[in-house]
Amino acid sequence: MRDILILLSLLSYPSLASVTSTNIQLTPEKAFCLGFTLDRPGEEYVGLNYPSVIDKKWVPVSTIVEYSLNENPIFITRTDFDKTNKKKQMVILGFHETIHSGGDAAVSITYQCLEKCGVNYLKNYNVPSIVKYIEANVQQCL
User: Fold this and answer.
1) Given 31, 54, 90, 101, which residue has the most CB atoms within 10 angstroms?
2) Beta bridge partners of 64
3) Does the pLDDT of residue 100 top 60, yes or no?
4) CA-to-CA distance for 35 and 62, rounded, in angstroms?
5) In whole numbers, what is the pLDDT of the chain averaged over residues?
6) DSSP-based three-state secondary structure for 42
7) Helix H segments across 47-137?
8) Pair 31, 120: CB distance under 8 Å
9) Is 58 exposed, middle or buried (0-12, 13-18, 19+ CB in 10 A)?
């Protein structure tokens, strides 16, 4: 009986290992150094450009944008995409006019590891406030 319990406990260890994701909050400085930049062509929209690969093994697989007005959530959009067909790496935030009247957006871009990842094969890069990101106006890697 004891041997059976030992065997069952050994078999249960792999089930305890689960795939986890890492959440990384991006400051404007850290974001710029990794390759995240803002695109503001005129007064039409704000776009967050993100790198097509990070550290030669992390590729983007989805984005989530949570829009808010006066710090109250309005709606959330999620976009999954095929990394091989994505030409322009940008999250378009079509709320440029509301930035000055209480509008904001939090952006999360999920990257997946391609090789030698262990159990942490997802990373979520988060910009909690695009308005604060714009106001920081970082244009160099410190």
Assistant:
1) 31
2) 78, 108
3) yes
4) 17
5) 77
6) coil
7) 130-136
8) no
9) buried
The one-letter code for the residue type at 16 is: L
Q: CA 83 to CA 59: how far, in whole Å?
A: 7
Other beta carbons within 10 angstroms of residue 84's beta carbon come to 6
Tokens coding 140? 């160099």
As a residue count, the chain comes to 142
The mean per-residue pLDDT over the stretch 110-138 comes to: 87
Q: What are the structural domains, with CATH classification, of the chain?
A: 17-136 (2.60.40)
pLDDT of the residue at 42: 64
What's this model's pTM, rounded to 2 decimal places? 0.75
Buried b (16+ CB within 10 A) or exposed e, 5-24: eeeeeeeeeeeeeeeeeeee
Is residue 66 over pLDDT 90?
yes
- Cβ-based neighbour number of residue 130 at 10 Å: 22
Q: Who wins on pLDDT, 87 or 11?
A: 87
Q: Contact at 8 Å (CB) between 115 and 57? A: yes
% of the chain beyond a pLDDT of 70: 73
